[in-house]
Amino acid sequence: xxxxxxxxxxxxxxxxxxxxxxxxxxxxxxxxxxxxxxxxxxxxxxxxxxxxxxxxxxxxxxxxxxxxxxxxxxxxxxxxxxxxxxxxxxxxxxxxxxxxxxxxxxxxxxxxxxxxxxxxxxxxxxxxxxxxxxxxxxxxxxxxxxxxxxxxxxxxxxxxxxxxxxxxxxxxxxxxxxxxxxxxxxxxxxxxxxxxxxxxxxxxxxxxxxxxxxxxxxxxxxxxxxxxxxxxxxxxxxxxxxxxxxxxxxxxxxxxxxxxxxxxxxxxxxxxxxxxxxxxxxxxxxxxxxxxxxxxxxxxxxxxxxxxxxxxxxxxxxxxxxxxxxxxxxxxxxxxxxxxxxxxxxxxxxxxxxxxxxxxx
Length: 361
Fold this sequence. Notes:
Distance between the termini: 40 Å
C-alpha cells in the first residue's frame, strides 16, 4: 500500500471521531479562557501617595521624578491635600503617603536632614523601609546634582584662583551641560548599578500586558494535552494490531504504518496546541514554536513506539497512563520546577517526553 494513501486514510478515519475532533477544537478555546482568567490588565504595583504642601521647586522636581519613575514594584500618584492623603492611607488605597511641607533644598543646604518629609503608614504595610530608601535615594540623587552644579559654577569652590584659571583652556560650563553629563553617567554603567526585576511588574515580559507567570502553565498544559493525544494514538495502533490491520502489509509498509497512524493523531493535536498558544498571545517566535512542536511530536512518536513495543496489552496501557501523567506533572516543570527544592528530580525527568518540549523555552 502507498504510505501517503495510508496516511490520508488515517486522517479520514480521525475525521469521523467526533469526540476527538471536539477535543481538538475545545483545547485552544479553553487555553484562551484560562489565559484571560489569569491575565490581569490592571496595574499590580503597590500604590503610594504624594502630597505637595509647599511651593519648593526641589520638592516639585522630586515628586515629578517619583511619579514618572517606571518602577516595577511601586507606583506613585499625587493628591491635592494632606487630608486626602491621610484618608487614602487609612482606607488602604495607599500603602504609604509622603507629605512635603518644608523647603527641601534650603533645609539640606543648612545641614538639616531630619524630619524633612512626613510619612503616613498603613497599619498592614511591610514596605515602609523599602519605600523610605527609594524616596530618599531619589531625593539625594537630585540634591547631588544641585551640589555638583553649585560646585562647578561657583568660582569660590574651584581649587585655584581666577588668575590661575585664566591660564587654562577650560570649556564653558553651565548648569544644563552639567545636568546632561550627570544624568548620562547615572545610567551608562561607568561605575556600577543594581537592577531588580519582579515577575508581576509591567516590564517583566517583552510582550506588553502579558503576565509571565501564566506562560509556563499554558505551555505545560499544551505538553500534557499532546501527551494525552499521543496516548490515544498509541491505543488506536494497539487496537489496529489486535484487529489484524497490519497483518496484510509486507516489508517497510508493515513497519512504517503504525508510526504513520500515530503521526496522523499527533499533527492535528500539535496544530491545536499552537493555535491555543497563539490565541493566548504568550508564544515565542512562530518559527521557534513550530520547530519545538515538531521536535516534541518526534520525541512522543519515539516514546510511544518504545512503550507500545514493551506493553502490548490495551488494559495495561490504560493503567500505566495515569501514572505517566502524574509523574510528568511532578518530575517536569509543567506547572512549577520542583527540582529547585529536590535536586534529585533532575536525574529522573529525562525519562519523560514533555521535559524536552519545555526545555526549548
